[in-house]
Amino acid sequence: MKILPFFLSFILVGIETDCWGQYNCEVVFEKNSPCCKACEMLYRDTKGRREGVQGARESIMVCDSAIALCPDFAEPYYIKAIPYLKRGEFWKWKPIIDKAVECDTVEYIGYRGGARFMFLRDYGGAIADIEWLKSRNVPVGTIYNGDYSLECILALSYRGMGDTLKAIEILQKHVLSERRGYYDYYHLGVMLFQVNRPHEAEEVLRRQISLYPFADAYYYIALAYRNMFDYRAFADNMKRAHECYENGICLPGSGSYMDYPDKIYLKQIHNL
To answer: What is this structure's pTM?
Structure first.
């Protein structure tokens, strides 16, 4: 079941919060049709009611009722799947989000691809989903929280599959676009360092620092300088990495499966 992207943008604002906002279902679906009723069930004003709380029993019941009324309506599957992903119950999340993708592939396959990488490190699955979306010549967008473009996730997935040079090629093109994300220069710099191109890595990581400085970027700048035998610059940047880390200015993560890619830890700084 496809709906207009203009109207979908209003939907997506609501489903990542505790309650879903009002939504004019009659604009999208025929009035009084089963799908219109399913839509209204999902997007009526639920302020102050538990039906709008993600993962609550009542919320799941509303989604199931909407699905029963309109089995090809993608949104109730998506809404029902979200809390399972957040709780780490991936075996429950996957078949439900697959149904959303089946019902509206263009709208949800990018979301699934980003989540497959960020939560599962399912590199092959992420590549398949994002490449499918790119083949349709539509903007690929970002992951669920907006922190990463799917182009960056695609590059990281190719690196995860062992093709770092292809990953670098993707990111080198992507950082020139207007859709560049928070960490694109950082991951490109790390990849350049990993293929023993420290001069290029340092230059790219400096661009990251100029836009958004954090401990992990200084750490890899320091490593690049060490490989260039500039030990004073190595020490200076490692000191900055330590200072940023102590102040909480670093990539998100705490040693769990949800750590952002290429995250470094204080122990790594201390060991150098």
So the answer is: 0.85
Phi, psi (deg, nearest 5) at residue 149: -75, 150
Instruction: Give alpha helix (H) positions in 4-73.
Output: 5-15, 25-28, 34-43, 57-69
- The two three-digit tokens of residue 182, written as one number: 């928070």
The C-alpha atoms of residue 179 and residue 139 are separated, in whole angstroms, by 9
pLDDT on residue 171: 96
Backbone angles phi, psi at 142, to 5 degrees: -130, 175
pLDDT in tens, 65-110: 999 999 999 999 999 999 999 888 999 999 999 999 999 999 999 9
Confidence of residue 54 (pLDDT cuts 50, 70, 90): low
% helix, strand, coil for the chain, step of 5 = 65, 0, 35
Higher pLDDT pick, 271 / 198:
198
Q: What's the whole-number mean pLDDT along residues 8-24?
A: 42
Residue 235's pLDDT is: 97
Amino acid (1-letter code) at residue 79: I
In DSSP terms, which residues pair with 142 in a beta bridge? 149
Q: In whole angstroms, give the CA distance from residue 83 to residue 59.
A: 10
Q: Token pair of 200, please?
A: 């290029």
Q: Give the whole-angstrom CA distance, residue 165 versus residue 195.
A: 8
149: β partners:
142
Q: What DSSP string runs through 139-185? A: ---B-TTSSSBHHHHHHHHHHHTT-HHHHHHHHHHHTTSTT--TTHH
Structural domains in the chain plus CATH codes: 5-103 (no CATH), 182-270 (1.25.40.10)
